[in-house]
Every structure is written in structure tokens, then in C-alpha cells.
Amino acid sequence: MMLRMCLICAWFAILAPLAQAQQICPWLTQGTAAKLMGGPVTADVQATTASEGVCVFTRSTTGDSVVLRIVIGPALSAVCLDGDHLRGVGDQAIHCATDKPNEHREAIQGNVRATQFALTLTARGPSVSPLPKNTQRSATEQLAEEVAGSLF
Question: Which 3 state secondary structure label does DSSP give 42?
Fold first, then answer.
């Protein structure tokens, strides 16, 4: 019986480091990102604290991709130099959009208390935008509300 317990403990000691939990974005769930981006997404999270870090969600389809990048920190470089001011999305939130060949990007930057946030939703591919542009803007604003709300 003692030998069996020692073997079980040894297996746990060997397998425990191999079982790594998926890191979770503190500001947005992968399920919410998938719902608003129109399908399954992968997540890359590098959050150092609840008020600083980066989460990148990616949805890829044949030839197209949608990438959501959320950056949170005390001092961020400008994502939108000018644009539409948004109400109800943190303080001093600005929305801007850019179009390039095979790329459409929606971005929102603002702050909550002393923490700045920026998010960009970029659609790339031959169809220019896997999400219709008005849907992409609406999704970006919903995502910004979620992120700003998580920072309160």
C-alpha cells in the first residue's frame, strides 16, 4: 500500500509541471471575444497585473484573419491621434478607423481612473473585412465597454 502511494505521488510530481493552465485575459474572456469576432479564437495573454498587460485574440479563416489586441497600462502611446469621441466608454475615449489595401482597422483608446487602455480590431485578407465595417465598429465599441468596465 505504501509503495502504491509513493508511485502515485511520483506520477503527480512528474506530470504536474506538464499540466499548465491556460492564462486568462483579465479584461475580456475568450468566449466574449469569439462571440463578437464571429467564431473560435486563439488567445495570447501577457498580463503582468490586473492593470497592465496585453491580450491578443486571433480568428483565422481561409485567407482572412481578425485580430483583437487589448493593451492596458499606465502610459500608452497614441493609437488614435484624432477621431470620434465616445461616451460611456471610460474617460476621454476616442474611436478611429483606417483602411489599407486588404486591411480594415477599428481602434478605441481611453482611460479609466489612472489606467489607459487601447484596443484594435484589425481585419485582414482579400475580402478586406471578414466582418462588415459597421459590424466591426459596433463590435469594437462593445469590446471597449467590456474592457473599460473591467477596469473600474
Answer: strand
